[in-house]
Write a structure and sequence with these properties.
By secondary structure, the protein is an alpha+beta fold. The chain folds into five domains: 62 residues, Helix hairpin bin (Helix Hairpins, Orthogonal Bundle); 241 residues, 2-Layer Sandwich (D-amino Acid Aminotransferase, Chain A, domain 1), CATH 3.30.470; 107 residues, Nucleic acid-binding proteins (OB fold (Dihydrolipoamide Acetyltransferase, E2P)); 147 residues, Orthogonal Bundle (DNA polymerase, domain 1); 70 residues, BRCT domain (Rossmann fold), CATH 3.40.50.10190. The protein contains 25 helices and 21 strands. The strands form five sheets. Strands 12, 13, 14, 15, 16, 17 and 18 form a seven-stranded antiparallel β-sheet that branches. A five-stranded mixed β-sheet has the order 2-11-10-3-9. A four-stranded antiparallel β-sheet has the order 5-4-7-8. Helix 2 packs antiparallel against helix 3 and helix 17 packs across helix 18. The longest helix is centred in the first third of the chain and has 21 residues. It starts with a helix and ends in a 6-residue tail after the last helix.
């Protein structure tokens, strides 16, 4: 594995790849890989960081929850963060989780088991019993306000009833699309000539994020409640199972398959039963969530920077089927990357019909030695694009020749080149129609400039017909140019031109994403925009100046510098400038950046701050608030009952330990107390 030769380089590669797939999954509802593949990337990165602690950063995907909220909906800050869950893929890993808990709590432990619904995590805020807000998880701290759409879901009541309804309560749960509704939706889509959805999870997420709530209303989404967040003025609960009973009594749906066990052996039996029965349900599940039932024990266990220690997701193994490989084709993406994919005889895998499957790259095809005409094993974790595992050699017909990766692009006939030290092959012709259309489509996408109505079909149409050669040409489109195309009436032209005009006001992070700079994702775009404040300053910055931005690093900095050094790219940016696009970054922070460059760890209970509020105060002043102490830590703020391990580590490293008064002075001045 590459990480054994150069762990720092491999960690950088993994972080860039994980950030890319996180954006696709959480922001665009368009994942390219399966959950199990994403989990494998995270596990590999986590292993590297555990073996090389100096490589771990607070911005690492192993330390973060979910993805950045999209810009389509208003941001919402959760009262209590919506954390992610650690995963177990075997009974041994489940037992290891139980052993880790023994370091924090003693005595008998009961485990509440719930089916892990494959949907969209949702937080419902009820104030005085009335639904006032619904928000997606987002990055765990800030989500998207989707209240109007959620109000159309019949299973979610507008008002809670019964006894003991708190004055304020956040109810967490999962919005999902029933399997029967998914089948019916695809039937309607096919009849209308529309796009078919890959699976219920993607269909549900896309339905929830519609700008027109009436579209959401027609999709018959459903909801299961599984957890409470903030609670004010309500009853005191001792057990999680008691909270679910109360939530059900208040009128919210709670999954009926919740069980409480007193041993992990019994938990494992429950998991095995549902692995066998998973397709007997009218909704998709991809595992079982196991939680400590006693709420006092949960408080003792606490959480890491991204996940509670008192819960774990037992993930089901992916499913496999066999079918015939009809052919191997190559697609060209917006970066020129040439990706082989399998054309399959359609087969039902993981509850949906599969006709295409990824083969990743040239090396993977050679390693698996799959050949057109083979019977192949298709592997699918219940969602997104499936993968060809390999051939069934016993069924291989005589005379099948190994498949050879083409030497030329299937779109433009230009050369396909494999870059030194990389596993991917690229079309090097920047004028390749597939690349041009892909770059334009990406620029207009929701996560970038969000030009509504400018999707894949229109990007390919306008490129093919010569209207667009690059993203700058989007702003030269006129009603006269569009009117010659079939299907473009006055209203559709006005809507498209209005959406193009509205995109000019998008902030700098959106523009940086839309420019398609290699290795720059949503998080990097935010960091760059905040650091430089204007596109012109970033364009003129040196590699060292860009790399000095915390969280960027030399690889990304070199990519950015090379992008802006290109004469062609500068010509495109001149078009965007002439069109009047916003080149400015985010507004100045509300607080003075007294902690810029500092890393402050908070442990224990503070009198004047909750743990979350103290960490947010650090971040608001430009600092970082990681969950662990390292040689990069500036100070540790210790309240009542601090973590012994953190204090010991601070003492070993000579890191100052501050009380609450010293913490307040640090926030105000950025100065540590004199020794």
């Amino acid at each position: 594995m590459a990480c054994s030769e150069n762990p720092a380089r491999r960690a950088d590669e993994l972080r860039a790849e994980i950030e890319h797939h996180t954006k696709l999954y959480y922001e665009l509802d368009a994942p390219e890989i399966e959950d199990w593949e994403f989990d494998a990337l995270l596990v590999e990165l986590k292993t590297i960081e555990e073996q090389h602690p100096d490589l771990q950063t607070p911005e690492s995907p192993t330390q973060k929850v979910g993805g950045a909220p999209s810009l389509q909906f208003a941001p919402v800050e959760h009262r209590v963060p919506m954390m992610s869950l650690d995963n177990a893929f075997s009974f041994e890993e489940l037992l290891a989780w139980g052993k880790r808990m023994e370091r924090y709590i003693a005595g008998e432990v009961h485990f509440a088991c719930e089916l892990k619904i494959d949907g969209v995590a949702m937080s419902l805020l009820y104030e005085r019993g009335v639904l006032t807000r619904a928000a997606t998880r987002g990055d765990g701290r800030v989500g998207e306000d989707v209240t109007a759409n959620v109000r159309t879901i019949a299973a979610i009541p507008e008002r809670l009833h019964g006894e003991g309804v708190p004055r304020v309560v956040e109810v967490r749960g999962e919005v999902y699309m029933p399997t029967s509704e998914f089948v019916e939706l695809n039937r309607r889509q096919e009849a209308d000539g529309g796009r078919l959805f890959a699976n219920p999870r993607n269909a549900g997420a896309g339905s929830l994020r519609q700008k027109d709530a009436s579209i959401t209303a027609g999709r018959n989404l459903a909801f299961w409640a599984y957890q409470l967040g903030a609670v004010e003025g309500g009853p005191v609960f001792r057990r999680h199972s008691d909270t679910l009973q109360a939530v059900r009594a208040w009128g919210l749906p709670v999954n009926p398959e919740v069980r409480v066990f007193d041993s992990l052996d019994a938990v494992h039996d429950f998991c095995k039963q549902w692995l066998e029965r998973r397709h007997s349900l009218d909704y998709e599940i991809d595992g079982v969530v196991v939680k400590v039932d006693d709420l006092a024990q949960r408080r003792e266990l606490g959480a890491t920077s991204k996940a509670p220690r008192w819960a774990i997701a037992y993930k089901f193994p992916p499913e496999e089927r066999t079918t015939r490989l009809q052919g191997i084709m190559v697609s060209i993406g917006r970066t020129g990357k040439a990706t082989p994919f399998a054309q399959l005889e359609p087969v039902v895998v993981g509850g949906s019909t599969v006709g295409l499957a990824t083969l990743h790259n040239q090396d993977m095809v050679r390693k698996k030695d799959v050949r057109p005409g083979d019977t192949v094993i298709v592997h699918k974790a219940g969602d997104v694009i499936p993968e060809v595992v390999g051939p069934v050699l016993a069924l291989r017909p005589d005379g099948l020749e190994p498949w050879e990766f083409p030497a030329t692009c299937p779109v433009c006939s230009g050369p396909l080149v494999r870059l030194e030290g990389e596993s991917d092959t690229f079309c090097t012709n920047l004028d390749c129609p597939a690349q041009r259309a892909g770059r334009i489509q990406h620029f207009a996408s929701r996560g970038a400039m969000d030009i509504e109505g400018f999707g894949e079909q229109r990007a390919h149409l306008f490129t093919r017909e010569g209207l667009l050669s690059d993203v700058g040409d989007i702003y030269s489109l006129t009603a006269e140019k569009l009117a010659r195309f079939e299907g473009f009436g006055e209203l559709s032209i006005a809507n498209l031109l209005g959406a193009i005009e509205a995109s000019k006001t998008r902030p700098l992070p959106n523009l940086l994403i839309g420019l398609n700079i290699r290795h720059v994702g949503a998080a990097g775009a935010q960091l760059l925009a905040r650091a430089f404040g204007h596109l012109d300053r970033l364009m003129e910055a040196s590699v060292d100046e860009i790399a000095s931005v915390e969280g960027i690093g030399p690889k990304i900095a070199t990519s950015i510098h090379e992008f802006f050094a290109s004469e062609h790219n500068r010509e495109v940016i001149d078009k965007l400038r002439a069109a009047g696009l916003n080149f400015a970054g985010p507004p100045a922070p509300d607080h003075p950046q007294t902690l810029a460059g500092m890393s402050v760890v908070v442990t224990g209970t503070l009198e004047g701050w909750s743990r979350e509020a103290a960490e947010e105060a650090v971040k608001a002043r430009g600092g970082k608030a990681p969950g662990s102490v390292s040689k990069k830590t500036t100070a540790v703020v210790a309240g009542e009952a601090p973590g012994a391990a953190k204090l010991t580590k601070a003492q070993e490293l000579g890191v100052p330990v501050l009380d609450e008064g010293a913490f307040a002075r640090l926030l105000a001045t950025g100065e540590l107390p004199a020794h």
